[in-house]
Amino acid sequence: MARKPLDRANPSRRSVLLGAVAATGALARPVLAQTATLQVVTSFPEELTTRYEQEFEKTHAGAHVQFVWKQSRDALEQLSRADQGGADVYWAASLGNFPILRDRGALRALEVDRAVLPGKLGAQQLSDPSGFFEAYDIAGYGVAINPALLAQRGLKAPRAWRDLAAPGYAGQIVMPLAGKVGFSPALYDIILQSEGWEEGWALLSEIGGGSELLAQGGGPVGAVKEGQAPLGLTIDFLALQARANGLPIDFVYPERTAFLPGHVAITATTRQFELAKTFVDFALSRAGQRLMMETDSSRHPARPDAYEGKPAANVDPFALPPSASFAYDTEVGRRRPGLVVALFEVMLNERPAKIAVLWRAIHTAEAKKPLGGEALTTLKEARRLVGLVPVSARDASDPTFLERFAKRDAIDPGLIQRWRAEIDAAQTQAQDLLARVGTAP
Amino acid sequence: MKRAVALVSLLVLTAAAPFENAKLDGEAFSRPMPGLDAARSKSFYAGSGLFRQAWMIGPSRDHPDVVGLGPLYNRLSCVACHVKNGRGAAPGDEGGVARAMVLRLSKPGADVHGGPLPHPVYGAQLNPEGVPGVPGEGRAVVRYEFFESKLADGTAVAMRRPRITLEDLAYGPLEPTTPSSPRNAPPAFGLGLLEAVPESQILALAAKNGGRANYVFDIESGAIKLGRFGLKANQPSLKQQIANAFAEDIGISSSLFPGENCTPAEVACLEAAKGAPRAELTEAQLAEVLDYIRVLAPPARREKGYARVKQGEALFEAIGCAACHRETLTLGAFFPLPALGGTPIHPYTDLLLHDMGKGLADGRMDFLAGPRDWRTPPLWGLGLAGKFGDAANFLHDGRARDVSEAILWHGGEAQAAAEAFHALGAANREALLAFLNSL
Lengths: 441, 439
Hints:
Strand content of chain B: 15-25%
Largest sheet of chain B: 3 strands, antiparallel
Number of domains of chain B: 1
Radius of gyration of chain B: 21 Å
Low-confidence stretches of chain A: 5-14, 19-32
Shape of chain B: globular
Shape of chain A: globular
Strand order of the largest sheet of chain B: 2-7-8
Strand content of chain A: 5-15%
Low-confidence stretches of chain B: 1-13
Order of helices and strands of chain A: EEHEHEHEEEEHEHHEHEHEEHHEHHHHHH
Largest sheet of chain A: 11 strands, mixed
Number of strands of chain B: 15
Largest interface: A-B, 68 and 98 residues
Mean pLDDT of chain B: 94
Oligomer: heterodimer
Radius of gyration of chain A: 25 Å
Number of helices of chain B: 11
CATH superfamily of the domain at 36-138 and 261-330 in chain A: Periplasmic binding protein-like II
Structural class of chain A: alpha/beta
């Protein structure tokens, strides 16, 4: 049903000044306008995109930027079509999509000035080495903190990912659910790459045993800023936006975290290459990069000179010591989200109470001093079993294996069931071991 | 950085009323009223997510629940115009495209319910954007004329008068005489409380101050009812106000506004709309957004006890502002938080229409609201406008860049109050502004 009725149609593209303002003395002088519309497919929030729209259109008369908002799978579907849905630019934080689109011939090569856009952060590659997509921003991962609540509970801020597993933090942490919160597969994969595959999953299990898993609502940052928990695992800009808005929240980058890039690229089928290039150049210019540092975005530019004159509280990732982060392997990382989500579901989300009890029992046993050699060996084995991941490190880096998890709704349920059984058996065995050291849950 | 400094100076907890948000930070307009139970809290956050959501062109594998954008629309989300739940930004002094402002369109006459007749080609509202393949209708570009208003003591107040040009009209010319009305996005907080003010109370005020009620069509009941939402009080309920904004601004249909927003002249729009569900916003989603808006708390007042603020408050009463900007209304039943029933609230509005003079006239009828009529806007939160990332643009089209400029545009029934402001000496004027800044 059409809500708008028709009296007539008479296509034209001239402009007119309306009677609405005639009452305030307006002139009715038709103005010709020829506006070129640039379609930008993006998943960035409107607080950010609107600023680019405003500033770009202000300085580029006759250009109009239209944003088509799509997240990962939808954007990949549109941009893989022959006509790419009319898109001119793809601008998003999607580690996975850009290389796929490059390999499908869906992007055009860009020219950038490496003197100002290094395309790297330390040893970590940020931009496409073959030049088809360029880093736009970099987002760090870490821990949002409610300083007052933390102090009230007699706790100090963690400095490393491993600190979060300390018994003192049990019940004080909120974590995002990997399958529900967009940034969380990358967050968890940073911990896995930083700590090692098996050790990383054991650590996630141990942290998860003392945490609340959050899906919706305000997410971890919402819980921290509203005082529901003193610590929350998150992507940095959500916490930094809150801090910049005056909320009582801080953010810690644990040692060996990583900063992951968002990218910008021009589509292969654009019919407005010059305008698309102008927009990309603007987004990567010093002025364009500084827009993302405004209060309601609080993101990190991929261009080092954009940090000049930044507020002291803001971190410049390019100026951090090398130990602050490691070279995250994006070639592995971009293929892993499906596997990380599936494992997180089985290892943490399906059994929060069970792993909480098991890790508490281990911590209780470990607190008994002195521990004999046999007890130490037993507890070490119990730890291994409780944090056991049913996928090898080799498989977790194998593109063929990872491809099996690329479509989340097409994962083999039999495989998941086998993981579940393996974890159940290991945790039952761990329970028996803990009984031997007198802390059976 | 300037904003960060300003924030620090505002981070003062004040004694708040039970319906107010006492935390005056960057989320001053985004918190629920205290005391929600778990179910209402959950619904609040779900509604908050939908209010912030950028709506998508369907189909979607990632978010099949938030598709249906357009085919014609203004912006992708509610929050794009209601910035941080505060006011939308009008174009700056250099002029530019109206982004947080909609332009209502009609043709002379009234529909069977007494409401405005949509323009036959462009519909009820200019939609500048179209999904790919559907030309946007055109863009409203605002330019300003600047002048000064000299106060009695010689102080000059900078004023600007907007002129709106329509550019890139894609579906044919619009006659310069087309009735139209620019409407800048107003704040979204406190609306649930205004909904809970008994109708009898509003009508009693009309008998006292000359204000007039707008009576408008209520789609759900099929009856004519008191209008209280929208800049011309042209919506009878919060639910209809929200559903109408989804339909007109984002192109999202619902049970109250089924179908797509295409006129028969907009062939590509009709084509793109084929197969779309009658209601893209589900009843559950509409209920969540409604739950969210209903309990968005107005911010607490500051500096209430300061002598200068008290002096300003007395002047506000004395020069006649308070006749329409009524300080106190009393809630009837307020079902999200029943304990608030019967509580006095302080929105500084009477929810009635008043003739605001030629200078603010839009020349367009909207049910009983005449071309010079506007509903008295609530003033709660006024002093925080522009402090947290929303805009400090006042009046229906955002032309006023500060409160003095806004007051000086008052005409018609408010002419005497504006003239009294004009005549105030500097000290009294500063006191009045200090009071308004405390709201």
